Amino acid sequence: MTEIRFRKIIEEIVSSGEAHAKWLNSLSMMENTGARKISKYEHPIYTGIIVLKHAAEEARHAYYLKKQISKLSKEACPDFSHPYLLAPVESHHYLNMLDVEACRFLKRKLNLEGRALKHGAYLLVTYSIEVRADMLYGIYQEVLTSKGSKVNVKSIIAEEEGHLEEMQKMLEVFHPEWRQLADEMCANEQRLFEHWVSAIGKELGIQ
Fold this sequence. Notes:
The protein is mainly α. Helix content is 78%, strand content 0%.
């Protein structure tokens, strides 16, 4: 899926109040899912400040996106149940399958298991998501600005850029061939992302 195709879908979403509210709610749900996954990954003792920072910021993003919905409608999308999400099944599937594929990949590639497997999966999944966030939120903000929307995600963009730099540093420590590992994981993420966005486009009747 090209960025031009993705931008077209975002333009259609932002032009519809209901679809836009569901889009924000879907992003909020996914950010919240990310925060919960990081908290689950955290070691009860050996957890550093970067992981704590990352979990806190993902939770803040979920809250911030949820608050943005009120700029469109005071009563829209009260929770994360399916009627209030875009392509709800695919939205949940996207992040969950990233975790599954990262674990399969690291078991096959590096023969990791246990805590080492969880750590590697956290790094690769987070890295691939931050690469995606840079593209997704960047295009989304450009469309918001061009349409004069009251909604904005500029603060999220700044924090996601910081996350990406942190993940790269942690991956450099994790494995000397981290770039190759990250590129392969990003290829897996690309496939899942395309499936998710295509499902959204289909649901909204966007060709």
